[in-house]
Design brief:
This protein has about 280 residues and is an alpha+beta fold. The protein has one domain. The chain is about 15% helix and about 30% strand. Strands 1-2-3-14-13-15-11-12 form an eight-stranded antiparallel beta sheet, with helices on one face. It has a five-stranded antiparallel beta sheet with strand order 4-18-5-16-17. Strand 16 and strand 17 form a beta hairpin.
């Protein structure tokens, strides 16, 4: 499937207008295809990014600490890196925290991970958490392995595993223990970030919440913001967000991985666009 070139810009998705109060951030004055907005829902302040998956100039990938080619495992690690260093190395429109990583010396990254149509981490037995994957044509899917079976990671252009899952088919779905989550920092009240997509599968919604929330509160907010499927991302001291090279939410610690989003204002590297074209032809890694 090939996306037809056309000119369009991401727009502000308001969700339930009666619930959402939205303020445009003081970002650069020129029009930008991919925009961050700041608002409140249910008295919860947030930063929200809408990613138009049909925009041919929008590319989503994963950046790893210290320019590593593979994510940290028990066997091999490249450690972590300051968020501002990562933002400098990836001159994208959006850079945000990604998935969990362990407190062990290796700083092992959670779950399988795919970027640019190649594995950054892969274990055939992986069945933990929930996976957001983008297939050919940027078609999104969200799979909870212990409930739905393992995702077909080989069919993903982009794939990140995190959780717990917040929404399934438009309804709140919270079963963190089934997914394998036991850490009280994840299950309790915490600083949160989340990602999801709309029912038609054309837009990703990336949200960075500014106050500590329960998973229930986070799920309710993501539903009200227009998500049909959604999952929790790493939070706490890992919560981080930058736009156009400007750090909006500084991380409280060094990170091992970040979500990186390019658009027409901050074009993707040629290596990334060429990998995209190749993946569209084959549909698999």
């Amino acid at each position: 499937m090939k996306i037809t070139k056309m000119q369009r810009r991401s727009f502000l998705f308001l969700g339930a207008a009666s619930l959402v109060k939205t303020l445009t951030m003081a970002l650069p004055s020129q029009a930008e295809p991919l925009q961050i907005t700041r608002g409140q829902i249910n008295s919860i302040p947030f930063y929200r990014t809408i990613i138009d998956l049909t925009d041919p100039d929008t590319y989503i990938t994963i950046g790893l600490a210290n320019n590593a080619e593979f994510a940290n495992t028990i066997q091999k690690t490249n450690g972590d890196e300051a968020f501002d260093n990562l933002v400098t190395r990836y001159p994208a429109t959006i850079v945000a925290n990604g998935t969990f990583f362990a407190k062990n010396p290796q700083k092992t990254v959670m779950g399988n991970m795919v970027a640019q149509g190649k594995f950054l981490k892969y274990s055939y037995w992986e069945n933990f958490g929930t996976t957001l994957g983008l297939k050919t044509g940027n078609k999104p899917e969200m799979i909870t392995a212990r409930v739905q079976g393992q995702p077909k990671w080989h069919e993903h252009w982009f794939s990140i595993t995190c959780g717990p899952r917040l929404l399934r088919q438009g309804e709140i779905w919270l079963n963190p223990k089934i997914e394998g989550f036991k850490d009280p920092h994840v299950l309790g009240i915490a600083a949160r970030t989340a990602i999801g997509f709309t029912k038609d599968g054309t837009k990703l919604i990336l949200v960075n919440f500014e106050i500590n929330l329960s998973l229930q509160q986070e799920a309710e907010a993501m539903k009200a913001l227009g998500c049909y499927e959604a999952m929790n991302l790493d939070g706490g001291a890992s919560r981080a967000l930058a736009a156009n090279g400007k750090i909006i939410v500084p991380a409280g610690r060094a990170l091992t991985n970040v979500i990186v989003i390019y658009d027409s204002q901050n074009p993707a590297p040629q290596e990334l666009t060429q990998a995209w074209e190749k993946f569209q032809k084959t549909g698999k890694i």
